[in-house]
Amino acid sequence: MHDIPLTWFLIFASACFVIGLLGVLVRRNAIAVLMAIEIMLNAANINIIAFWRYSVPGPEESPVSGPMLAIFVITIAAAEVAVGIGLILLCYRRRASADVDQYDSLSG
Amino acid sequence: MSSELLFEFVYFIPEIVLAFWGLLVILLDVALLRGRPSETRGKILGMVSLVGAILALVSVFVPDMLSFGSATGAPETSIFFGAIFQGPVVERFSAFIIILLMFVIALSTTWNFTEHWGEYFGLLFWTAVGMIMLIAAEELVTLFLTLELMTISLYIITAFEKDLNRSSEGALKYFVYGSVSSALFLFGLSLLYGLAGTTRLSAIGAVLEPQQSVAGLGRNIAGAMSVLLILVGFGFKISAVPFHQWAPDAYEGAPAPVSAWLATGSKLASMIALTKVLIQALGAWASGDGNLASPGWVGILAVIAALTMTYGNFAALAQKNLKRMLAYSSIAHAGYMLVGVMAVAVAAGSRVAAGPILFYLVVYSVANIGAFAVAAWLFRDKKTDEIEDLNGLFAQYPFLAVCTLLLMLSLIGIPGVAGFWGKFFMFSEALTQGEDKHRLTFLWLVGLGLMNSVISAFYYVRVLRAMFLRPSTGAPLKPPTFAIRVAVIGSALVVIIFGLYPTPLTDETDRLADSRIFDSRLKHTGPAPKVALNGGLQPVASPVGK
User: Fold this and answer.
1) N or C: fewer beta carbons within 10 Å in chain B?
2) Number of domains in chain A
3) ipTM of the complex, rounded to two decimals
4) How far apart are CA B46 and CA B68, in angstroms?
């Protein structure tokens, strides 16, 4: 039986992570930054689930610690987006722009 | 549910009280107090919140009162299937965080910066829950969850002064940097989970221990990646250079009580969590053959610590805004504390090496609460919080000015006030711990730290010069509220008492540091404890049938 090896998942997750990180660094729109952050969180989730699927939990371990971690991450990501959109909206109302470069009144 | 599990909830009462009280104040705000002017609601809800905090403070000591253990407090245990650690250090620092929370709540009622008082106090409570559980978390899921509970709530309360541009801007920057760093942190956690095959910190330490090699993290790319990313995540939370950019903006933008909370509670909890994770789980990756420059996190920490204290102090020199200056000073203090963390890592055999960090954290937090109380006072009456707004404070309020002087002296580290002992104990710990080959690195770091303390005197003294030497300018300061008075005078008292007689506090922090969360398993001299190594990442060719 030829299954997909673990490394493929890890390479995929790392690629997603790098794409997300590049998105955060390159994109200037706050909403796009938020999306890039989501990609990074999901890359970590892929990692977690792949590691869990390809390993035998020890006798002391919970058999589902990987999926639990992933489910909590999904929840946290949702909370983070809700808060992030709220903050972006608040800033947008004041400056009529979602461009993160506009927010430079505090510096020094 | 078994009765044992029910029993474990006894340890969990403070968290339950705080979380419940957060809901209660929101309900009160929208139900009973509906339609009242925001000023009254703020005052009433502040009082209600204080009551909740006091209840939580009392409930911290319930396990003690039931006296499960000896006179020295409840023994160390793990509750909820090893997810949460309970012991004297968690108990005392929970109490300390709740006391800080009470000051923050009291300072929040100083002026009317928002209409949404219910949500504001609710979020304050939930950040406190996050901080307390972050100190107690003993497992990666809980660790990440509590870290996020704390920071996500903090993003929102940073933006609470909606009339001001700077508040929303500071919050947006805090949010963007914060969520990127938590994504990086999570990726590091996922790699660590894969390498160790478990989420419990102590089990991770046990799995990694046999892998400790002369090469340290050399050739272990996944491990190195994971350590780096975890350090990025924590570096952000404690605002260490180069992950500090959010801190000045968020501290300046946030209402002063929230800045105080960011500088004290959030930093304190993250610092303890950082120490715990590095020592307990990643102790095997501290350094290679003991040489600090070999691949491992001690070497990275040394660079970060040096950069953080130097950059923080030099950047603070140029600041005109009081809160922004305090933000840079808190960055610098994070750098000093990282030297203490390194000392714990190389401390052979001794479990109390973390004591000086705990002492430093307490003293630093107390001094900062007082300093931000002054900032809250300035903003209430002058609507700005520049350093020059302090001009002539001594002529108007001599006693409070002298108290502020003590706080500033403590932050500099002048002998006679507690800040001096904080630096003294931590740096002398760094110089005495470890072997001879470590000496030179620590000597450099401590030398840099002392030089930085001298530099830091310049910007703290500018505050003193404004208070004592300049004539009063602008609108006069009205008499401070009771909360500001208590915060400034109380913290000055603490700082001077422990400055003149630090022994009770050092004894206490040394006792608390003697905990297994600050105990790297590698330091045991006796036979290695038998731990069932779990499978870890068994390279299985195909997915295991689940």
Assistant:
1) N
2) 1
3) 0.95
4) 34
